[in-house]
Amino acid sequence: MPWQLTGIHGTIGSCPPEDLLTPGLGAQPRVPDDQGQCRIPGVEAGDVHDRLIEVIEPLLLPGQPNWVVLPASEQDQRLGWEQQVGDRAEIGFGRGWSALAMSQLNRLGTTGRVIAARMIGADEEGVEAVVALDWTPSDQGLELVFSQVDGRPEGGTDPGALIRKGGEVVTQPEAVLCPGTGSDGYLDQLYPALAALGDWVQSEVRWSFPEASLGALGVAGCLFGWAWLVQGYNLGEFTETTAVLAMDESALVGLSLVRPAGA
Q1: pLDDT value at position 106?
Q2: What pairing do the DSSP bridges indicate for beta strands 66-70 and 112-118?
């Protein structure tokens, strides 16, 4: 089933995500303050958990499916999140869960919203971000041809088996969309799986880091990457299948394969 990205909401630092996707406007959410922070303006809560609630709540769609991707560090707050939003959204933790959210949306086959947010503590450097993407089924757009997750709760996840499954669907993608900035260690989990990558590491395959110029965005970065990818297809920069890697410090690793309908 083809999908159209019909809405992009939220803020990265003080900038709407659309502005950071617009050619010529640059790619800086905001100049960091003296503490090295790019916080979202207007958020009054001080605690990271409460700040997450404050930015996510207004983005939950009433009467439509919602998926919320939370930082892995919030996993010990699962019960609280289920009580807070569990009747209005499916919740998961870590970037890898975004692949599961996309798979569930694809199976459901109806308009839905995927939300992800990352907030920072008072003494933590970085960029705060909340991104929400609205996906609508259509007769044209992008097809999700593969989207699965794998993970070991005790740690030591090896994404090799997942990549081999993806390789059975697409021997060599046009591009690989990578998580994070390239210097944050998110790709370290790939080291045990290098043999499984096969033709995915050939020179003609483009390995792209959409977040590299923005700084670490946490789980919100995975949705920014999806929006960046859709723009790339719309501009003709991508024309075939792209592999989307979703991994971070959490145990869950996700892999999605997406292509234009009819490709």
Answers
A1: 97
A2: parallel
List, in sequence order, every residue forming a beta bridge with 243; answer none if it has no partner: 176, 257
End-to-end CA distance of the chain: give it in Å, rounded. 13
* Nearest C-alpha neighbor of 256 from the set 96, 34, 74, 77: 96
Which of 95, 111, 137 corresponds to the end of one domain? 137
Query: Could you tell me which residue, 183 or 106, shows the higher pLDDT?
Result: 106
Q: Are strands 126-127 and 206-208 parallel, antiparallel or unpaired?
A: unpaired
Q: Which of 93-97, 125-129, 149-153, 216-220 has the lowest mean pLDDT?
A: 149-153
Residues 96, 202, single domain; the answer is no
* Domain end among 107, 137, 167: 137
Total count of domains within the chain: 2
Count of residues making up the chain: 263
Note the pTM of the prediction, 2 decimals: 0.94
The CATH number that applies at residue 221 is 3.40.47.10
**Residue 132 and residue 159 in one domain:** no
